[in-house]
Design brief:
Elements: E1 2-5, H1 11-23, H2 38-46, E2 50-57, E3 60-68, H3 74-77, E4 89-97, H4 106-120, E5 125-131, H5 135-144, E6 147-153, E7 159-166, H6 171-174
Parallel strand pairs: 4-5
Antiparallel strand pairs: 1-2, 2-3, 3-4, 5-7, 6-7
Length: 176
């Protein structure tokens, strides 16, 4: 696998990956819908609030993982623990693995790559949101070291858990 930042030149491949995801979701209530038309995909790629990492197997876009520098406005809406400096926090946002690459550890690998990127950019904390019943996604983020912080309702049909992780040090030992 080759890992690199997604650019506008990748918009067709990313649009196809999003279409595949949208058409094959086992539980649509676990995910917010993503637009897959080329104009929307290019806007997403070019938004400075996102860093989208692509995993490429030759010419195939096998998956993506992303950082959201605005944390989806979560710190404005919810009270985070005092030990977590939300000014030094980034959100692990949307991630997708193409159907033919699922079950091979790619999601975990991509999440570790964006963790390295976040650390290199000076972030100390990461958060993510996951539907409370999405056990496959929770398994990966808990394996990475994220820990449960709180449950929220982003809207009435979308209950989520927020999980936090200290990026550089052992998360539990640093809690105060």
């Amino acid at each position: 696998m080759i890992y690199r930042k997604i650019t506008s030149a990748d918009k067709e491949k990313l649009a196809d990956l999003i279409k595949e995801m949208n058409e094959n979701l086992l539980n649509k209530t676990w995910f917010l819908p993503m637009e897959s038309d080329l104009e929307s995909v290019e806007k997403m790629i070019n938004k400075s609030r996102f860093y989208i990492l692509g995993a490429f197997d030759g010419d195939n876009l096998a998956g993506i993982a992303s950082l959201d520098y605005k944390n989806g406005k979560l710190p404005e809406m919810y009270k985070f623990p005092d030990w977590c400096d939300t000014n030094k926090m980034v959100e692990f946002a949307f991630s997708i693995v193409a159907l033919q690459y699922r079950g091979k550890g790619l999601m975990f690998e991509m999440l570790n790559k964006i963790k390295e990127i976040a650390i290199s950019q000076g972030f100390e904390y990461a958060c993510c949101t996951v539907h409370k019943d999405n056990y496959p996604s929770k398994k990966n983020i808990l394996k990475m070291g994220f820990e449960y912080c709180m449950s929220i309702n982003q809207n009435t049909d979308f209950p989520r858990d927020i999980l936090l992780m200290r990026l550089k040090k052992d998360f539990i030992k640093d809690k105060k």
